[in-house]
Amino acid sequence: QSPTPSLTSEPNSIMLVPAGDNYTMVDFATAYFRDAQSTQRLKAMSAEKKSVADLVQHTKVPIQESLLQYSDSDLNELATKNFKTLMQFMGDQPKLKNQKEAECIYEILQLCKEKESLHDEIYCQVIKQVSHNPNQESVLRGWLLLNLLTGYYLPSNILMPYATKFLQLASSDPSSTHHDIAKICQSNLRKNFMYGGRRHLPFPVELEALLKGRSARRLTVLMPGGVEYITKIQTFTVAKELLQEICEKMGAGEQEEIQEFVLIASRSRATRPIRPEEYLHDYLLEDKLVTVTLRRLLWRTPLHFENQIYTDIHYGQILRDYLDGRILLGRGKEMEMEVGVLAVLQHWAKREQQSSALSREALNEYTPKSLHPSLRLQALESHVGTLLRTRQPLQPKEAKIQFIEQVMKLPFFGYNTYLVERVSNDTISVPCFFGVNKEEIIAVDSTTQEVSCIIPLKELQQMRILRPVSEGGLPGIELDYGSAHSPKAMWLELSQAKELYHTITAILDRT
């Protein structure tokens, strides 16, 4: 029976240190290397072990056949060619004319991407060339490649315990020059097993930085309310790790609450939530036009305001959504009173000294533009004037907290809302709002704010994005929901179709 990785009691995790001493690369070579088969016929055991050990140690000359046995001659040829590329990158063989180091790495990673059956072969080749290699510069380059290899591609279940044993032994020697990068390789392999590895090969700029010893990249995360969080991410940092880091900084370290936040990648008009298990570098393009923002997606856990950054971020997000019309208000006679209270709290939340009066221009800034046509401006101004005269002004932090608490009482708070232009359901008036929260998708009339359709998320069977039916048309989403006995379907068209699709997916991942 083929050896397989040992699983721990934790889900989606792998024990990277196999038990016992029977998982060395010499053991693997004895069982699986093509050249070891002939040495096994030797009677002298010590000579046999010495000969097999040579197979997993550095060589100065290129191999003439693949290390592993392949019945496909093309794979054997690709393997020997890859070994030459590996030696050229590591400096064990002269490079070709105009051949760059980054091109060598890219060629090897691309081969792994195209030929999964060569993963074990290439792992063995790199491990061989960093083992007992007298040239320290060559060793460092080999470990750099192994760093990338472990983050992108997994070895087979057969090789996995041997490769992980090799990394464990390499990382346990503090006197070695490569024990730190061996630990990084262990971490890469663990993430790769859990999350599937990076999807996109590194850009040339990223490879050049790695070759110069710069493994970290500076990243600015835009937070609600204009707060910027500046950090450094590694080659294989996943969104989950950065979310944990940011949330702990703002005093939201409990896992239940961390899961309610999401990082969002935006480029031009395209916006998409990054799933926790996705690698950040898969979103950060070379042109640096991608921005990463933080957003609270769900609102299950109670808010707490002992941390000023936490307060500012939540206030900034809720305020922006409110002013952009993404938090819907009821359209009854109480609307002017609600808008008035929220305007005064915004006024007090500003750091500068609050004046007793509030100009019409400022009042317009504190009010969602979508509400301007339906507001009775005179009634609103009168109500705001009364509030400013009769209430004691609040300090900015307390005003922000009260604004948050006031908005959270609104009937549609907690929904991520999108303006929809067309719907296949004739009973839904358009344009309308579609909102999704932790429990359901709703359609809300844009005029009356009445709910005209509810789709429980537990009834959602599948979704797919629809391309525009005509040039200049809007993209859409098709929703299949209901039960097996009563299946239903609906399509809707909106400019933010992809964002809505990925938002629903992100919420489903967290519920």
From TrEMBL:
Keyword terms: Actin-binding, Cytoplasm, Repeat
InterPro entries membership: Band_41_domain, FERM_2, FERM_central, FERM_domain, MyTH4_dom, MyTH4_dom_sf, Unconventional_Myosin_ATPase
Record's GO cellular component terms: cytoplasm; cytoskeleton
First-listed, main subcellular location of the protein, grouped into a coarse class: cytoplasm
GO molecular function: actin binding
Compartments, record wording: Cytoplasm
Keyword Signal recorded: no
Segments forming domain FERM: 217-511
Signal peptide: none
Residues of the MyTH4 domain: 58-211
PROSITE patterns: FERM_3, MYTH4
Similarity remark: Belongs to the TRAFAC class myosin-kinesin ATPase superfamily. Myosin family.
UniProt cross-references to PANTHER family, sorted A to Z: MYOSIN VII, XV (PTHR22692), MYOSIN XVB (PTHR22692:SF16)
Protein name: Unconventional myosin-XV
